[in-house]
Amino acid sequence: MKKSKNKSKKNIKNFIIFPVALCLVMFIFVFAVSAPFISNIVSIGSMFMADKQVDYSKSYDNIFIPTDTNADTVNASDVDFPGIGKQFGELSIENCDVDAKLFYGDSSVPLRNGVGIYAGSFIPGYGRTILVAGHNNTYFNGLKNVKKGDVVIISTSYGNYKYKVTGTKLTTDKDKKAYDLSAKKENLVLYTCYPFDSLGLTNQRFFVYAEKTSGPVITGLYE
Predict the structure, then answer these.
(1) Is the domain of 15 the same as that of 93?
(2) For residue 162, how many other CB atoms are within 10 A of its CB?
(3) Ranges of the chain with pLDDT below 50
(4) Is the N-terminal amide bond of 195 cis, ω within 30° of 0?
(5) Is residue 127 part of a domain?
(6) How many of the other CB atoms lie within 10 Å of CB of 194?
(7) How far apart are CA 39 and CA 78, in angstroms?
(8) Could you tell me the pTM of the whole model?
(9) Which of 1, 116, 159, 162 has the fewest CB atoms within 10 Å, measured from its CB?
């Protein structure tokens, strides 16, 4: 009788507990693998199924005030340094139909409303690398038409800057040599996902490189 009970418990373990545990493990694995794709599908679907377009314009602060100043320098004390997520300028490339609000930070709100400077890089006038991200199917879609010699214009409240495009590069999202944040001269790097017009994140990146040709230098940074 005792042997029969043990056999019954073993059968319960084999036919109930093990299958349930196996199903649970498989569910967790499938969810982990497919979560990024599900997120993209939900995001895309929400854009098409929403009753009205979502307004993100009230989700950030705008400190940008256009200026016509042509000064060669501007003191740091006169610069309203942007906080994360704030719009502090505009970026345009006339020949590429690129015309976007410029934010400090490249999180979701800035990139829904314009293009954003990676917070680990620098702002115009600092004399270092400026790394700007934008979506390939919205504000940086026009980069597919960029050519060597094109002029990138960045307007800020403390001055207006021009950068001449020197080249482009197509690489992967793992390529850390695609930009140099330790460079000792002011240079502009724009990047976006590739191919253009694709939806969701990809593992390829399209980079545009430009060198500064005009715009005020921020002085008194380390005083």
Answers:
(1) no
(2) 14
(3) 2-3, 5, 13, 29-56
(4) yes
(5) yes
(6) 20
(7) 43
(8) 0.74
(9) 1
